[in-house]
């Protein structure tokens, strides 16, 4: 069982006050807070061990290189990947998906070819495909969510046709908390020779993930949502797809030799890691993932599932609050609007006065907002360090907001 009180002691920021109230941080879907282990690792790297990685040969460079390169294996273990050379280090999910769009899809897809998306995708898993629509005539096929916010995977599968070249799907919605059975999608898509890209930005922080079992072709993660630093992340690329990809960016490290007449590329994954990387950010990500694995992903998932059930019960008990997405197994992410004239931004501001941090806006999910018929929502997103007491404080703050707008 997860010891939440002990975990909270590991996160220094949770002891501070905001507007004279104890901080209730419920904006984890945007970015999670950092444990002391990560903060200490970053401080150590900059204050005592910093140097550029690879080829330095001096002591500091060797230390930085060893710590940096060790993160690849940590990520592989965290994601259930046997071969760490299928892990490309980068700045996060946005870079990872763009890498696939430019390096794999752009040279392979032609006008009329189709990419299947769900309506609940984050813009990071939409805009790169719009580039291909604008520049190459690729067709985007959309699958809507159901009335309860779930995604019917059979509808995704049924959308696959002879012109489908890629399915790009979120493992877990950053707005609705909807979990998607991506393994079933992968199995069915592969039977028809269609690769699958999975946006794992939200899923990996809430539940165990095993990519060797899921069987996807691409899987993107971002470090700052995983209790790690911003500017860190990775993408898993199956070895068969790695062989098909061309480099996304050119520069140092991704080459073997460069002359006036030619260039010889490095082997994957280095082939796709151009230039000086986010050295310290990546080291911090490795520490964050080890922290999560030490706590236990099963324990984290069980705690958050319990939190989700309690929060769903409390929030749906407010008959003037409209919660988007009512699937019983949803993750602890709740987007909502309030009856009347209260705008999401106003609600968020009032909650902040009570020390409760939530996000307001479209959450980089414009097509989903259109589908839901709203322009913006408030979103309370929970993490392993949140408690039922903090759910109660959220409810108290919402009741205050409602009274003010009544």
TrEMBL record:
GO annotation, biological process: cysteine metabolic process
Alphabetical UniProt keywords: Pyridoxal phosphate, Transferase
EC code: 2.8.1.7
UniProt keyword annotation of Transferase present: yes
Top EC class for this record: transferase
Span of domain Aminotransferase class V: 24-394
Cofactor: pyridoxal 5'-phosphate
An MF annotation (GO) of this entry: cysteine desulfurase activity
Listed Pfam families: Aminotran_5
Reaction catalyzed: (sulfur carrier)-H + L-cysteine = (sulfur carrier)-SH + L-alanine
NCBIfam families: sufS (TIGR01979)
Function: Catalyzes the removal of elemental sulfur and selenium atoms from L-cysteine, L-cystine, L-selenocysteine, and L-selenocystine to produce L-alanine.
Family that this chain belongs to: Belongs to the class-V pyridoxal-phosphate-dependent aminotransferase family. Csd subfamily.
Record protein name field: Cysteine desulfurase
Organism per entry: Roseovarius albus
Gene behind the chain: sufS_2
């Amino acid at each position: 069982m997860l010891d939440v009180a002990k975990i909270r002691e590991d996160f220094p920021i949770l002891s501070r006050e905001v507007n004279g109230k104890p901080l209730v941080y419920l904006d984890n879907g945007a970015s999670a807070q950092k444990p002391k282990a990560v903060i200490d690792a970053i401080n150590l790297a900059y204050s005592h061990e910093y140097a550029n990685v690879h080829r330095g040969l001096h002591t500091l460079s060797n230390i930085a290189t060893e710590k940096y390169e060790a993160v690849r294996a940590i990520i592989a273990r965290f994601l259930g990947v046997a071969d760490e050379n299928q892990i490309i280090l980068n700045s996060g999910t946005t870079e990872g998906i763009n890498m696939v769009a430019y390096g794999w899809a752009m040279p392979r897809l032609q006008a009329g070819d189709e990419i299947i998306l769900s309506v609940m995708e984050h813009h990071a898993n939409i805009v790169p495909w719009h580039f291909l629509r604008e520049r190459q005539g690729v067709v985007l096929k959309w699958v809507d969510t159901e009335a309860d916010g779930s995604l019917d995977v059979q509808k995704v599968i049924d959308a696959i046709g002879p012109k489908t070249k890629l399915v790009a799907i979120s493992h877990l919605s950053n707005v609705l908390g909807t979990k998607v059975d991506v393994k079933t999608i992968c199995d069915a898509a592969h039977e028809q020779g269609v690769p699958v890209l999975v946006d794992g930005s939200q899923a990996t922080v809430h539940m165990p993930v095993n990519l060797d079992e899921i069987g996807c072709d691409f899987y993107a993660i971002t470090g700052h949502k995983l209790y790690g630093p911003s500017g860190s992340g990775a993408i898993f690329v199956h070895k068969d797809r790695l062989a098909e990809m061309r480099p996304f960016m050119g520069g140092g490290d991704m080459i073997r030799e460069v002359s006036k007449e030619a260039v010889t590329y490095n082997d994957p994954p280095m082939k796709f890691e151009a230039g000086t990387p986010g050295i310290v950010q990546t080291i911090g990500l490795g520490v964050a993932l080890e922290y999560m694995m030490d706590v236990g992903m099963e324990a984290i998932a069980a705690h958050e599932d319990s939190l989700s059930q309690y929060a769903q019960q409390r929030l749906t008990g407010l008959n003037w609050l409209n919660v988007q997405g009512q699937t019983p197994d949803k993750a602890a992410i709740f987007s909502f609007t309030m009856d009347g004239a209260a705008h999401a931004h106003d609600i968020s501001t009032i909650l902040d006065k009570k020390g409760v941090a939530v996000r307001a806006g479209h959450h980089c999910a414009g097509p989903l907002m259109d589908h839901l018929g709203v322009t913006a929502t408030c979103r309370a997103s929970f993490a392993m360090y949140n408690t039922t007491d903090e759910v109660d404080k959220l409810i108290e703050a919402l009741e205050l907001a409602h009274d003010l707008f009544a």
